[in-house]
Design a protein that fits this description.
The complex is a heterodimer of chains A (292) and B (238).
Chain A: E1 4-13, E2 16-26, E3 31-35, H1 42-49, E4 57-62, E5 77-81, H2 92-102, H3 108-118, H4 131-145, E6 149-153, H5 161-177, E7 181-186, H6 189-192, E8 198-203, E9 206-212, H7 213-219, E10 220-226, H8 227-234, E11 238-245, E12 248-254, H9 259-267, E13 271-274, H10 277-284
Parallel strand pairs in A: 3-7, 3-8, 5-6, 6-7
Antiparallel strand pairs in A: 1-2, 1-4, 8-9, 10-12, 10-13, 11-12
Chain B: H1 2-39, E1 44-45, E2 48-49, H2 55-84, H3 89-121, H4 137-165, H5 170-199, H6 208-230
Antiparallel strand pairs in B: 1-2
Helix pairs in contact in B: 1-2, 1-3, 2-3, 2-4, 3-4, 3-6, 4-5, 4-6, 5-6
The chains are: A alpha/beta (292), B mainly alpha (238).
């Protein structure tokens, strides 16, 4: 299993700082969800890992080695993004041939099985496939490469809901049979959250948090009650958002609740509700959130 | 181990893919050559009457253009593809250097072979080599290969320049023109009065060894500049 480490990594485009001092450790063998709004720096971060570019400063190591131009590491990292196949006259079969030739553990049989599931014929040129089928072809190559690290960067855009479902299932099955590291970058958080073991939220080029999903969701909840009681309860909590209607207030909070705090909530007759990862993501990265 | 294996694969694959393009190219040039010979034997091509052309002299200029185009396309068509498959920029560079050299030699060999067959059919052929009627075959072959490789190198500079610097690549067109003109000027005289120059050097004439070394040096310098530009180049995501 390949551990991934980013140390003080910065990337700048002209005046814009795309990534600001990223420190991140991804343990090998897990499925990570990398979530962030458009322009948060997700693709830049992932392209560093795939050796598409080097950081302007800082250090990246994969399995203890620098990945850039490293012949031991590069073949073990697959970076799948919404690829433009408009100039690709090669047939689907030819693309499988290329992957088979250069990826040390490419599973041809599995790739062909997946293509059948997605309804993609082998003898069609890639450019003639529909947008959804192109995306399905991409994820097929990503899964069948069986590399130590597989990155899907919004690779599911263009797929319809049933096709995405086939992909999610295939990913889980293949991960169970061949455990390795997956990084799924997305903003389709609500339908993919069950796949993630850990979540990394990237916002404005910085890591906002990295937590196991369960722990993250345990810490995120909304509390509802009368305005005064809610205000009393949240005074020492990290509040992401509040809403008021009449005398009733609802506050979305983030942070661990002590037993004492739980007792207090009971006394104040407050109601708790869990919130989804999607909601948490929206609140954490909202422009209205002063910490965002 | 792995590294060597990958480089070999890249070199073989790039050679095969480009050889397919070259097969189309040389086939088309051959068809045009045959048509010209049959229908317009008196037309002048490159200031020489069709009647006196051999396939080798006829294919020389189009081969330069073909290799130039191949060079221009090399980085944008192959480098992102290979990095996407986990191949290093280094392996691409050596693979492309190898395949372009093999390809130029291959083009020369085909042109040469066809011309030998032509000579058997037409023993009275006036001008089988662009170096002159009595030029050495070996030398002709060597120079054909080197000069068209220099054109590839020029194209490669342009393609790498544009890939790396975007519009700044325009400067590399200038550099390529400079390099190619230099190579052409090294061979200009010899293509018309080759024998004369070969045996009778004078101060204003360029010795054979200088032409050869100058061409080889230009190719090596171009390749090195391409390597420097692509060594750490950012791969575009599209």
């Amino acid at each position: 299993m390949f551990d991934i480490q980013f140390e003080n990594v910065c990337v700048t485009f002209g005046e814009t700082e795309a990534l600001k001092n990223i420190n991140l450790h991804l343990e090998g063998g897990k499925i990570y969800g990398l979530i962030g709004r458009n322009g948060a720096g997700k693709t830049t971060l992932l392209s560093l890992l795939a050796s598409y570019r080097e950081p302007d400063s800082g250090k990246i190591t994969v399995n203890g080695q620098k990945p850039f131009e490293n012949p031991e590491i590069m073949p073990e990292i697959t970076f799948i993004y919404e690829k433009d196949y408009s100039d690709e006259s090669e047939k689907v079969k030819g693309l499988l041939d290329a992957a088979e030739r250069y990826r040390p553990r490419f599973d041809r049989k599995y790739a062909e099985e997946l293509l059948t599931r997605f309804g993609i014929p082998l003898d069609k040129p890639a450019k003639s496939l529909s947008k959804g089928k192109k995306a399905a072809l991409n994820v097929t190559l990503g899964l069948a490469n069986r590399t130590e690290v597989t990155i899907f960067d919004e690779a599911y855009l263009g797929m319809d809901a049933p096709t995405r479902e086939i992909f999610y299932r295939a990913l889980m099955e293949d991960y169970t049979d061949h455990p390795r590291t997956f990084i799924l970058s997305t903003h389709l958080v609500s339908e993919m959250d069950y796949l993630f073991e850990e979540v990394v939220i990237l916002h404005k080029g910085q890591i906002l948090l990295k937590e196991p999903v369960e722990e993250l969701l345990e810490q995120a909840r909304a509390v509802t009650g009368t305005r005064e009681k809610v205000n009393e309860f949240i005074s020492d909590m990290k509040v992401l958002e509040t809403q008021e209607l009449g005398g009733v207030k609802r506050a979305v909070m983030y942070g661990k609740l002590s037993e004492e705090k739980m007792k207090k909530a009971e006394q104040l007759e407050l109601e708790f509700e869990t919130i989804s990862l999607q909601d948490l993501f929206i609140h954490l990265t909202s422009e209205a959130n002063p910490d965002a | 181990m792995l590294k060597k294996g990958v480089l070999r694969k890249v070199a073989v694959d790039m050679t095969l893919i480009q050889a397919k393009w070259a097969a189309w190219f040389i086939g088309i040039v051959f068809a045009i050559y045959v048509l010209f010979r049959i229908f317009t034997p008196n037309v002048e091509v490159h200031s020489v009457s069709m009647e006196t052309h051999s396939f080798l002299t006829m294919a020389y200029s189009p081969s330069k253009v073909f290799m130039l185009v191949l060079g221009i396309l090399s980085v944008s068509s192959f480098l992102p593809f290979y990095v996407q498959h986990g191949v290093t920029r280094r392996d691409y560079f050596y693979g492309a250097s190898f395949s372009s050299t093999v390809l130029t030699a291959g083009l020369m060999a085909i042109a040469w072979l066809v011309t030998i067959i032509e000579q058997v059919i037409r023993p009275d052929m006036i001008n089988p080599s662009f170096l002159g009627p009595d030029a050495s075959w070996l030398l002709t072959a060597f120079i054909f290969t080197l000069v068209i490789l220099a054109y590839f190198a020029g194209g490669w500079l342009i393609g790498a320049g544009f890939y790396r610097y975007g519009a700044g690549g325009l400067l590399f067109i200038l550099l390529a023109i400079l390099f190619i003109s230099f190579v052409e000027s090294l061979w200009e005289f010899k293509q018309t009065h080759f024998l004369l120059l070969y045996f009778n050097f004078s101060d204003e004439q360029i010795p054979m060894s200088v032409s050869l070394l100058g061409t080889i040096a230009t190719i090596i310098v171009s390749f090195l500049i391409v390597r420097l530009m692509t060594k750490r180049v950012r791969i575009k995501i599209k």
